[in-house]
Amino acid sequence: MIVRQAANVLEIMEFFAQVKKPATLAEIADHFGWPRSSTFNLLATLSEKGYLYEPRPRAGFYPTPRWLAMARMISEVEPLPQWTHTLIADLSAETGETASIVAPAGVMAVFIDVVESQAAIRYFATIGHRVPIHATASGRALLLQYSQEERDSVYRKIEFKQYGPSTPISIEAVETELRNSIARGYCQSFADYSRDLAGAAIPLPIGDRRLSVVVAGPEFRIGPKVAEVAALIARTVDRLRPKAAA
Amino acid sequence: MIVRQAANVLEIMEFFAQVKKPATLAEIADHFGWPRSSTFNLLATLSEKGYLYEPRPRAGFYPTPRWLAMARMISEVEPLPQWTHTLIADLSAETGETASIVAPAGVMAVFIDVVESQAAIRYFATIGHRVPIHATASGRALLLQYSQEERDSVYRKIEFKQYGPSTPISIEAVETELRNSIARGYCQSFADYSRDLAGAAIPLPIGDRRLSVVVAGPEFRIGPKVAEVAALIARTVDRLRPKAAA
DNA sequence: CATATAAATTCACATATATGTACGTTTATC
DNA sequence: GATAAACGTACATATATGTGAATTTATATG
User: Reduced to 3 states, what is the DSSP secondary structure of residue B105?
Assistant: First the structure.
């Protein structure tokens, strides 16, 4: 079950992150198609808790810097080491595609850092973006770091769907693909989940955290050179990862 | 009316900002006294939207960097000029008290930047903290920047309460205090709202934004030297504010 | 300045939603 | 390795909550 008003809070914030200017009650209500009275209650709640204010009279609401203060406190705990951002920045620059750091979230994989391609046709992903862990290169690079039991426990919760022609639709199919990935030295995906999208990924354990790096883009650009891209990822990790730490 | 689940989202985030480590469903449910089933729905919603993930298996949930990404996008719009932070940092250092930048939010005033005193006994305020606009030094420094009509419109919405012995409990009382503030050259408050708390504030218009600076602390420390403190605020603003801009 | 139009609030009620209860799964204990 | 305790998940139901309509307040227009 989805908690509607919880989702609405996030949508309002995303709205402000997008329009980047104050908005009145009416504007927000119209934008989402919400009743004004409901919008009023939501805005009042956010204001009362100190997350919204009125920068200038009658010009509407805008989030207070409290969001930033809170997000900073949250993120200063085990932040990703600096070199991982350099890693995906370099990868994106060299390949011209979108590169990301990915972490597990149950049966899904979450993008926790992203550097987007500059190409007109590109993989559009943002921090927080989620994809099925079993049907993506990045996800499988995470699964490779699990024990057999942990994987089994994840499998039990997966709803196998045929997202595309090559989606693995059984536990055995996923396990086979994992074995192939080990043999091959990297994980790959050709439209297993998203149409026309291909990617190469490798595991990226940091401390006791299980992460992965992925480079992804349109099938026609990435397809012919997955192996190259995968090798580049491996080399770049080798170059940037501090030698001392595991 | 307060939208409970909207408030709960904020409380969860504040919880993480405080404990700074992953928490399991059970821990969160117990902490807030929420039923597990409800907590489950909330966490599922936040996860589904990409705001929560599971850093390591079975070690619970933690917010994704998406919060930070969003907060950054929101805050890069008309951020406070750098010098205002220097301003309150200097004021706090020189006075040993808490200094803040404050903005209006209806009948309330919101703290949008804070540098806290280091003293053991101090005014504890955080970004997002809200106080009544008419019953605080910082709030009245905002009201001074309003036209008479704008003030009247605010007055109509105020519920006058006797927060402390000196709280102004009528429109006339507030207007009188404003006139006194103009004559005096700064706004002050002696436990008008919070017990034992005194403060000095002056208006701080920036562009078309109506802000104020306030220095506040325990009555026994601030009380004897409000005038000094107010003068210091004025001098420091003069020193730091760029001459070009109004 | 009066009137019209739009926006913000309030409130009572029907309905969408939070939760008690029960079940399956995982982890801890002996 | 067996048993117990804790944890996570699903669902039906009573109730807390969102909302449509009415009221008040603010802004635009003739």
Answer: strand
Q: Domains (ranges, CATH) in chain A?
A: 4-75 (1.10.10.10), 82-240 (3.30.450.40)
| Per-residue pLDDT tens digits for B173-209 | 999 999 999 999 999 999 999 989 999 999 999 988 8
Q: Which of A50, A70, A128 sits opposite B64 (nearest CB)?
A: A128
Strand D and B1 CB separated by under 7 Å: yes
Number of H helices, E strands in chain B: 10, 8
Average pLDDT, chain B: 91
Per residue in A18-72, pLDDT (tens digit) is 888 889 888 888 888 888 888 888 898 899 889 999 877 667 899 999 999 999 9
Nucleotides of D under 7 A from a protein CB: 6-12, 16-21, 25-27
- Partners of A6 on chain B (C-beta within 8 Å) are 5-6, 8-9, 42, 45-46
- The end-to-end CA distance of chain B, in Å, is 40
A195 touches chain B (CB under 8 A): no
How far apart are alpha carbons A84 and A100 in whole angstroms?
9
Strand C contacted by A37 CB (< 7 A)? yes
